[in-house]
Amino acid sequence: MSGAESIVVDSVYVGEVWIAAGQSNMGFQVFQLAEAEKQRAIAAAKNPAIHFMTVPKKIHGDSISSDDNRLEWKLAMGKQVEKMSAVAYFFAQKLQSQIDVPLGIIITPHGGSTAEAWLPREILRENPITDPLFERYQEYMAMKGEQGAREEYDEYLRAWDVYQRGDRQNVRKPRRPYGPYSQSFPGGLYETMLKRIIPYTARGVLWYQGESNNGRAEQYRVLLPMLISEWRKEFRNPGLYFCIVQLPAYKGPKIESWPEIREAQLLTARSTSHTAMVVTIDAGEWDNLHPLNKRPVGERLAALAANDVYGILQPHKGPELESAKSENGGMILTFDPGGSGLTTRGKKSLCGFYVAEEEGDFVEAHAEIDGNRVRVWSEKVQHPAVVRYGWANWTECNLCNEAGYPASPFRTDNRPLLTTGSYR
User: Fold this and answer.
1) Most CB contacts within 10 A, which of 176, 206, 227, 277?
2) How far apart are CA 62 and CA 415, in angstroms?
3) Side by side, which strands form the sheet with 50-54?
4) What is the pLDDT of residues 200-224, one digit of tens each?
């Protein structure tokens, strides 16, 4: 600088930053909420200490104008909040009111994305469970090449245009083809979206994803911890906190694979340091992949972060299974209730439990609460040995604690998964 030259920088904040990532349920914006909830959210958006920045959605080959491609912090106030991730908004509103410092949320989801799309492609080669994803990528590119991939994508765009302009009742919605122009392509979104914010200093990550990996749930047990580890390296923060959103109830695909994704998320949260999970089994809709009830998701994430990261002690988790044993023709399950007593949602009869003998079929069971224990039994099972709870794509299981936090679906058996060996 020389002479009278000066640079003025305004709106400088010192506070906390979190990253909100995943697929379409994290991308679901405030304006998409039910009308009454949307208006309630907008009316409450008066906090000048909350800002958000959305990374433009981009897949390899997408053409984005320079204006639409900018990274820009925005105030989460008034009508402007309509374009903010609803989960991130509810998270920020609750957390900021407790930590009382400026809070910024970097929002970087992409609808339909797989976990492997958010990882450096080469990292997949390091584990035999994930290497098939890299092999599929190599096989595709060897067969199609860049030119063939582009032609396939152009054909999809033409079909999409016909679908958009035509009678949607009679025209089948085209599927984006696998390839470098897909949001499921290994390494794709890592290159086009995540790299734009690396290595931004952040306190933690809110991760709402898994729907697009549901057919490869066994592999997800390896893929999700791999993603957490790699992101911590990329952001140069070995303690980067990860808050996983467990998938809610939903009718799902033809096979009952969503329980296996939920289990993979639960196992990751239990076995990975600086990682936890919020249960949202009660926040789903039977026929809606994008349930509207995003408030409990965001607020549970905020309670978890406030308790675990900032030391602001409060209810933040549901009942967790500690042990299971067979006794007097039933199964006795002992829980850590999560800070308050066991109960049911809406004080209704306890449901969602299934019981079986060691090798037999599971049947729906009776269940009753006794302190911090649940007794499960069925007249059809003489020698019960294993229990499953909420083990279905769609389930109305209702065990929770007095603070309203639901228990995660679980199983006590180790029978083969439906997705065992599905790695591509």
Assistant:
1) 206
2) 44
3) 74-75, 50-54, 103-109, 16-22, 204-208, 241-245, 275-278
4) 999 999 999 999 999 999 999 999 9
